[in-house]
Design a protein that fits this description.
The complex is a heterodimer of chains A (about 200) and B (about 90).
Chain A: H1 23-33, H2 37-47, H3 51-68, H4 77-96, H5 104-110, H6 129-139, H7 142-153, H8 158-165, H9 169-189
Helix pairs in contact in A: 2-3, 2-4, 2-7, 3-4, 4-8, 6-9, 7-9, 8-9
Chain B: H1 3-14, H2 20-32, H3 34-52, H4 58-73
Helix pairs in contact in B: 1-2, 1-3, 2-3
The chains are: A mainly alpha (about 200), B mainly alpha (about 90).
């Protein structure tokens, strides 16, 4: 069995043979990490404002995953990767804005002024459904928009989103449901969805 | 199950996040109740609209795959990822 130290090729290049990392590391990385690249990019796009930042964040996540894959038990690779990404993202923010705390919510609250496109008045009645949804989405508070993106666009389960954001699943659920109700309300305002009494 | 109960569960149901028994009861109600059925289809359309915006940049995905694969053939000189490295502009 090939032991690759404690999982870290810690002093410069590990292999001078060009054979790459320990075979086990390589296999674990190829099995657990590489298939998740697309999901990671989707999630990173949700977490960051700029596409270039998203790509950087995924690279950083891949690097960190590579370095710790030896210690990963192979269960729930996506959850494991999302945790790594979350830490990388917090770290990135700290580097740029060191006053921020670990709490992604606080972070999101602070950012909630971004992308406030399309108030109800600005939504022109008769606009296509997708456009109204789009505009409603970007008009949501970041905390809510993010959960909608993670679940509806990035395809995470409630549990995975909760894991990533480090909040209880119930919080994900209530934010998500409230956010969608707001999107729905926009559609009603635009005459693209029926009014509803019960909800 | 009445409309109010369904209204509370509808989104979780559509997300596949309810247990099987609940899901069956919601589904049965949606079959019978036009108003709730309509409500469900509005949420499904919203989800459809949202998922259409989510196609990630194929080139970026390809670049990242190459990056990932390159880690295997050419492992980085590790410094533990800057996880706890001092930030360049500490104290700013």
């Amino acid at each position: 069995m090939l032991a690759t130290g404690r999982g870290f090729p810690s002093c410069g290049r590990r292999s001078d043979s060009g054979a790459g990392p320990g075979r086990r590391t390589g296999r674990a990385f190829a099995t657990h990490v590489l298939p998740e690249v697309e999901v990671l990019l989707r999630v990173a796009t949700t977490l960051t404002a700029q596409p270039a930042d998203a790509e950087d964040l995924v690279q950083e996540t891949l690097l960190r995953a590579y370095r710790s894959v030896d210690r990963f038990d192979g269960r729930h690779p996506r959850a494991w990767l999302l945790t790594i990404m979350r830490r990388a993202e917090i770290n990135r923010h700290r580097r740029r804005r060191p006053n921020l705390l670990d709490d992604p919510d606080a972070d999101l609250d602070r950012l909630s002024s971004t992308g406030s496109a399309g108030s109800a008045e600005e939504v022109v009645v008769g606009e296509a459904f997708d456009e109204v949804v789009d505009s409603a989405l970007s008009g949501l508070p970041d905390k809510h928009r993010q959960v909608v993106q993670l679940v509806d666009i990035d395809g995470l389960t409630y549990a995975e989103a909760a894991h990533l954001l480090d909040v209880p699943e119930g919080t994900v659920m209530s934010r998500l449901h409230r956010a969608r109700k707001r999107i729905r309300a926009r559609l009603v305002a635009a005459g693209l969805a029926p009014k509803r009494g019960v909800m | 199950m009445n409309c109010l109960q369904v209204a509370r569960l509808l989104q979780s149901y559509l997300d596949g996040e309810t247990d099987e028994v609940t899901a069956r009861r919601v589904a049965a109600h949606l079959e019978d109740c036009r108003r709730c059925g309509l409500e469900a289809s509005v949420y499904e359309e919203i989800r459809g609209a949202l998922s259409r915006r989510g196609t990630p940049d194929a080139e970026a995905v390809a670049r990242l795959r190459i990056f990932g694969e390159a880690l295997l053939s050419d492992p980085p000189a590790a410094d533990d990822g800057g996880d706890r490295g001092a930030s360049p502009s500490a104290g700013a």
